[in-house]
Amino acid sequence: MRSHQRETLEARLAAYREPPPPPKSDRELFLEAMQGVLPHKNDYFEHPAKYPSPHPVQRWRDEARVMRDAMTDFWPWDELESGEELLYLRPGVRPDSLKKLRRGEWVVQGELDLHGLTSEYARPVVGEFLHRCRVENRRCVRIVHGKGLGSKNKEPVLKLKLKNWLAQRDEVLAFCQARPFDGGSGAVLVLIKGNHER
Question: What segment(s) does the record annotate as region Disordered (predicted)?
């Protein structure tokens, strides 16, 4: 009996002493997994079509670039001046539109803050913002230009240029200085054409 146990024990020890078989390579494992699989007879592979965005993004960019480039710093302001307060009503627009804008009867649907921007950088930002508002049908927005306290001569440089830029934009129907609690002389409310208006 002891000899039988010894033989069994020696057989077990011999099994442990033998090195384990080397692991199979990735190729061997792949071929083993692919047994019985037939190759496809057709070499042709069809790529699904990539559909363009449903929004005419490039057209929007082109229009925004044209409008931005069309804005100049110089504009005849005889008909736009009204003292220190910014006021403008595009010819052909009903006068009560400006009155309602001044009284705050329009809901402000967007805001652009130009604090800290130079006029060179602010101009394209304003053009892009107004274009995007027209596309998104935002009718009334506030543009904060600041009071010019941080400028070299402590004058509102952006305020003066902004009125020129806004008056040149086709989508701007009217604009006025914001009410004191909406930014006062440091901001302007802008009434923009709706999507359906030409």
Answer: 1-25
